[in-house]
Amino acid sequence: MLSEDTRERVLRAAGEAFAERGFRDATVRDICGKAEVNIASVNYYFRNKEALYFETLSFAFREAEDRYPLDCPEGEGAAPVERLRHFIRSFLMRLLDDTHLGWHGKLITREILSPTAALVPIIDSVMKPRFDAMREIITQLVPHRLDENELERCVLGIFGQCLVYRHARSVIDHLWPQVVAGVDDREATADHVFRSALAALTHLPPASRED
Known about the structure:
Layout: H1 4-25, H2 28-35, H3 39-46, H4 49-67, H5 80-96, H6 102-113, H7 119-141, H8 148-167, H9 169-175, H10 183-202
């Protein structure tokens, strides 16, 4: 049986390989070589490359959540404004992490752009609960009732404001590197996204409806 340390070493090696080369081009042999484990034992405990990939994605989300929890320490009892502030800050810091966690964002981006069979289970088990949490926050901040489509657009708009700093990182680093250069810069950027989102939500007028 793989020890917990060995299992984690395999998952980290797999995460770096899948993030760098993608699911189709990364090989179990290369992953095992990087992790310094026997191929047969990995095949036995993870069954196949597909299962290893799914476990790696799940591991990436768990580790990111441990370092940057998206829920307020006070839980759902926290004020919606503070829940929004905490969520945006943690999510943005997670996206911009340049430490060993950096492969998380690259791996997940690869999966979204070139999906495998793992995407739907990951959406249902990991992403959807986060979208639902943001939906709840938004409904408490907007001064009128939103229909489902408008609510979903608000959710996507907030995530989009954060994700642009990840997906357009090469552009930002060329044009305005100072907005994400260091921890203080990222804190300021997170605060800007929070204030922009809060202003939009609390002053959002009702959608015009054609008769």
